[in-house]
Amino acid sequence: MASRPENVGILAMEIYFPTTCVQQEDLETFDGVSKGKYTIGLGQDCMTFCTDLEDVISMSLTAVTSLLEKYEIDPKQIGRLEVGSETVIDKSKSIKTWLMHIFEKCGNTEIEGVDSTNACYGGTAALFNCINWIESSSWDGRYGLVVATDSAVYAEGAARPTGGAAAVAMLIGPNAPIATESKYRGTHMAHVYDFYKPNLASEYPVVDGKLSQTCYLMALDSCYKRFCNKFEKEEGRQFSLLDTDYIAFHSPYNKLVQKSFGRLLFNDFSRHARSVGKDAQEKLEPFAGLSEQDSYNSRDLEKVSQQLAKPLYDAKIQPSTLLPKQVGNMYTASLYAALASIIHNKHTTLDGQRVMMFSYGSGLASTLFSFKIREGQFPFTLSNITEVMDVQNKLDSRHEFLPEDFVENLKRMETLYGAKDFVSTSQLSLLRPGAFYLTKVDSMYRRFYSRKVISAGDNFEKSKLANGTTHDEL
């Protein structure tokens, strides 16, 4: 009997986000709010957004094509393709079917999987589906491919600065440098109306911000307890935050990540008071008698736990925050952009370390799971993944929009949502070479895409952006 594949996880990664962005500082001034409301209050620096040239389909096409090209993966070697997204383009036709264009050209139409949808959790569901497939008797020896993609936009108001847009593509297989520790997963699912999109005529969500934050923290508590229990049963010793090197959180905005890490410290105190140290134990003791519900509403507990967690936050969380703070809330892609940030910032010292991942999707679905990191073998090495993603160059090559132009773009996107018979009008100079983009939607709602030409000597990130001819129309 053949042995099961070992160290199944992420072999390779690529991330794509539009070059168009707006600074949160500028938005504060434009919106007439107090200075620091978005940059300190939300913890955000910048926000990426789509023009009429880009959407979740074009971003996914770009990310997948780039991953296959840069790691020199034969498209015939993909046996399962799963997409996680909550951005609805079509109520029937999956994003995955659009990506099949890449594989049909080489004759590979035997690829299982479709889209997974539940708010920001869909990317994690897609990842688990691919991992479970490879670890099952159904696996045919080929790679899995996961895409997490979303464009997060909000109506005018307090939530608008928490938008963003990106696609992350991940190649899944055995002997991975980012290997999952499946036996430690802790999951929490429930029914709640904290964030949802009932109006199919609009892409804007209905949000109960206070409830959503509480649900996030409640789900985190539940998942962490279950993760710890499974770890302790398996390893025969208690688990605490000292047993993980880094943690990546789904990041609607960075301030919630800060609160969440403080909450985990309080969890350690509640489970094993001595594990947090004498000083923290003394300062958290006054909150020991709070009911669970009261603990979520206690500003004093929130403040104290964040202060106590600050040194650990700087070491274990800060490296994950680069892309979420610079790009914004990417919904399904958010958690994996945080992982990409850790790899970008710490790839030379990650060998042998554990990264915990907290995935949350409103409505709600959540899982806390972990990866064990190792250097891997070329081309699936941490250093090569870092080079391929080229995060800093992508950030540095963006086009900053004035807030008034950002708002005008949103108004145009509102008119185009669900529309037909139009042609995209934004300048191609806003695109990186190699990026796919929407050219038109015809009278039958059919969408057409092209790819911006890559000239000789160009690469995706470092070339000077210029209008160019296009090829490979879809």
Automatic annotation (TrEMBL):
Pfam families: HMG_CoA_synt_C (PF08540), HMG_CoA_synt_N (PF01154)
Keywords: Lipid biosynthesis, Lipid metabolism, Steroid biosynthesis, Steroid metabolism, Sterol biosynthesis, Sterol metabolism, Transferase
UniProt keyword Translocase, yes or no: no
Top-tier EC class: transferase
Reactions catalysed, as given in the entry: acetoacetyl-CoA + acetyl-CoA + H2O = (3S)-3-hydroxy-3-methylglutaryl-CoA + CoA + H(+)
PANTHER family named among the record's database cross-references: 3-HYDROXY-3-METHYLGLUTARYL COENZYME A SYNTHASE (PTHR43323), HYDROXYMETHYLGLUTARYL-COA SYNTHASE (PTHR43323:SF2)
Entry similarity comment: Belongs to the thiolase-like superfamily. HMG-CoA synthase family.
Protein name, UniProt field: Hydroxymethylglutaryl-CoA synthase
Species, as recorded: Pinus sylvestris (Scotch pine)
